[in-house]
């Protein structure tokens, strides 16, 4: 059958940087991806990196003493896998990506149609944690029910065969885009900024091509115009500790934590909040996911002490910021949510919070009385 391909073998080349001091220290052992391959005939046009060259890791690694415990040694066990060469960094003969490796700003200075679907963050200056992309994540094998749920809802989209219905839906979307002049012909490549997300958009739109096109326009308006986002632009806001990644669930999905009490005066600046969240999400998509294995995230929203840090006069601003975040999570990065758990919610906010939860996401959202229930 057809394959929805992310343009890269399973496994990103870099692990998630150490933001806000969470996670371990030190640079990670940056090897090539796990031994997954591009499906036959698939094009690497939407890869995170420009080129792929055949290379393998050394038989013995100085970082783990040749015990085979680091990512470099684990990925060397595969044969014929590709080692990415990134835009501003390079790859050593041993296959390790250099610390400067990151997306180049020039990728985002093209026409909006050519903006990469994944990435959006540039000028990274700080190191990468070795803990947020461990070998067990890179080599994680999702169960069949985790790829496509018994209800028929797909969770894993890349490097996996598509059903006949999904292929037909993508064909209808291409024809509609050709009719509207977005594509010159229905055989032309989809716009790069949404090509790898097309099936997610269709599924989120109940396979209504017109609604999927509307989601494309939202992605153009809310994401493409904002990227790239440089680390330095959001670093001070990251240090607040309002948003950070912390651990993974049993399906290896990274966990985004929102500590609302640390939002502070940012509550009055919705655009800054949106850029901060978007930087964090783009960062996880670029460095913490494994196409075909781990493609989604989970979220914990902690509302503890929110009334002490945010004045009642600013509750309207808080709701506006929450609404903007809902748009980013539900429309721009649709189909990525595993679950949301809300903890320490004041009773007087229950109505407003419930009103912000999209109807089709309510089965994934729960309010817990005790934070310990998250585990």
Blueprint of the fold:
Blueprint: E1 3-4, E2 51-54, H1 71-76, E3 82-85, E4 121-122, H2 135-138, H3 144-147, E5 160-161, H4 164-179, H5 198-204, H6 209-224, E6 229-230, H7 231-238, E7 243-248, E8 254-259, H8 270-287, E9 297-302, H9 306-309, H10 315-332, E10 337-343, H11 350-356, E11 365-368
Parallel strand pairs: 4-6, 8-9, 9-10, 10-11
Antiparallel strand pairs: 1-5, 2-3, 7-8
Helix pairs in contact: 4-6, 5-6, 7-8, 8-10
Quick synopsis:
The chain has helices at 71-76, 135-138, 144-147, 164-179, 198-204, 209-224, 231-238, 270-287, 306-309, 315-332, 350-356, and strands at residues 3-4, 51-54, 82-85, 121-122, 160-161, 229-230, 243-248, 254-259, 297-302, 337-343, 365-368. The protein is an alpha/beta fold and 375 residues long.
Task: Identify the CATH homologous superfamily of the domain at 235-374.
Answer: CRAL-TRIO lipid binding domain
CATH topology of the domain at 235-374: Phosphatidylinositol Transfer Protein Sec14p
Strand content: 5-15%
Query: What is the mean pLDDT?
Result: 72
CATH-defined architecture of the domain at 235-374: 3-Layer(aba) Sandwich
How many strand elements?
A: 11
Task: Give the overall shape.
Answer: globular
Largest sheet: 5 strands, mixed
Helix percent reads 25-40%
Q: Can you tell me the residue ranges where pLDDT is under 50 for at least 5 consecutive residues?
A: 5-101
CATH domain class of the domain at 235-374: Alpha Beta
Helical region count?
A: 11
Distance between the termini: 38 Å
Gyration radius over CA: 21 Å
Protein structure class: alpha/beta
Please list the strands of the largest sheet in the order they lie side by side. 7-8-9-10-11
Order of helices and strands: EEHEEHHEHHHEHEEHEHHEHE
């Amino acid at each position: 059958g057809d394959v929805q391909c992310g343009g890269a073998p399973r496994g990103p080349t870099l692990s998630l940087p150490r933001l806000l001091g969470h996670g371990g220290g030190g640079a990670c052992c940056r090897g090539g991806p796990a031994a997954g391959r591009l499906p036959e005939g698939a094009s690497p046009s939407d890869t995170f990196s420009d080129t792929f060259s055949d290379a393998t890791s050394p038989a013995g690694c100085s970082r783990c003493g040749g015990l085979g415990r680091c990512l470099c040694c684990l990925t060397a066990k595969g044969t014929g896998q590709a080692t990415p060469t990134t835009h501003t960094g390079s790859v050593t003969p041993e296959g390790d990506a250099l610390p400067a490796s990151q997306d180049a700003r020039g990728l985002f200075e093209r026409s909006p149609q050519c903006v990469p679907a994944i990435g959006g963050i540039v000028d990274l200056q700080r190191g990468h944690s070795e803990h947020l992309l461990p070998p067990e994540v890179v080599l994680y094998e999702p169960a069949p029910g985790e790829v496509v749920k018994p209800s028929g809802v797909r969770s894993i989209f890349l490097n996996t065969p598509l059903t006949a219905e999904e292929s037909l839906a993508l064909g209808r979307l291409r024809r509609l885009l050709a009719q509207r002049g977005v594509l010159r012909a229905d055989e032309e490549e989809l716009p790069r900024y949404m090509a790898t997300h097309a099936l997610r958009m269709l599924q989120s739109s109940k396979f209504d091509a017109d609604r999927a096109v509307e989601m494309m326009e939202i992605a153009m308006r809310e994401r493409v115009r904002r990227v790239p986002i440089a680390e330095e632009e959001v670093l001070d806001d990251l240090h607040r500790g309002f948003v950070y990644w912390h651990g993974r669930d049993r399906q290896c999905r990274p966990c985004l934590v929102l500590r609302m009490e640390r939002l502070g005066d940012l509550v009055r600046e919705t655009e800054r909040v949106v850029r901060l969240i978007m930087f964090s999400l783009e960062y996880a998509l670029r460095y913490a996911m494994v196409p075909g294995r781990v493609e989604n995230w989970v979220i914990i929203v902690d509302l503890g002490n929110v009334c002490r840090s945010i004045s009642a006069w600013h509750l309207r601003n808080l709701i506006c910021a929450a609404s903007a975040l809902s748009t980013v999570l539900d429309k721009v990065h649709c189909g990525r949510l595993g679950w949301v758990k809300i903890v320490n919610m004041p009773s007087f906010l229950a109505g407003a919070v419930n009103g912000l939860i999209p109807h089709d996401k309510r089965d994934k959202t729960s309010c817990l009385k005790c934070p310990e229930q998250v585990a």
